UniProtKB/TrEMBL annotation:
Family: Belongs to the class I-like SAM-binding methyltransferase superfamily. CmoM family.
Function of the molecule: Catalyzes the methylation of 5-carboxymethoxyuridine (cmo5U) to form 5-methoxycarbonylmethoxyuridine (mcmo5U) at position 34 in tRNAs.
GO biological process, one term: methylation
Entry protein name: tRNA 5-carboxymethoxyuridine methyltransferase
Record domain Methyltransferase type: where: 51-143
Gene name, Swiss-Prot/TrEMBL: cmoM
Catalytic activity: 5-carboxymethoxyuridine(34) in tRNA + S-adenosyl-L-methionine = 5-methoxycarbonylmethoxyuridine(34) in tRNA + S-adenosyl-L-homocysteine
Organism per entry: Bowmanella denitrificans
Enzyme Commission number, as recorded: 2.1.1.-
Amino acid sequence: MHKQYSQDQSFDRIAEKFEKNIYGTTKGRLRHELLEHYLHQHLPKTPVRVLDAGGGTGVMTQTLAELGHQVTLNDVSEDALAIARQKLANYPQVSYHCGPLQKLTEQGEFELVLCHAVLEWLSRPLDALDSLLQNLAPGGQLSLSFFNRDAHVFSNLIYGNFDYIDKDFVVPNRVRLNPNNAVCPSQVLDFLQASGLQVVHKAGIRCFHDYVRDKSIQTSHYEQIKAKELEYGTRHPYLWLGRYFHLIAIKPGG
């Protein structure tokens, strides 16, 4: 990793474990399918240049490549990109870039920029987002999702983890697969508005899936849960409870 961003999280040496732990669970499956659903509602009707910033092993890149988009998959982890190259070998329209997303300006502008579940792994998430906006073409769309700090507090309150909250979620032996810098939706929304972008979509991702008392229904009633997540995910006040927050914003011009 570039020394300047050494405090940012990389998944080198644990990329396979990360993919299994995230996408091998109902949490990861539901997050991906909800994001796919909302993206399909807003995606450009014709193929465009797409930047999947911090796209890891290429799960969302594959979705976009299958739709004919020209995708640049970026990640700071060589191991994650190695998995992606193998998985996406049959998609010649996918190119790869290894390095911090804060250093992507040389890649040019894109009509669609994705940054999903990345900000919470960075030491200075809003600074990184500011850099990423330089890659967004005038009139282009930004799809941004991130671990919701407000929901993180709420979740730990209902589980009684009061000491953890009082310590501002800092523990001596932090689990590497746990996000370490959750962001408040209000902060991001204010930042994008100040940057001149128009937010056209807001949704909570997993507004109640993670809170159900009987965890077995996350599997046994998955389709019902997904349907209710879609029903309530864009409605107030439920969207603010999503463990992840998703928004789509348009850059002026174009």
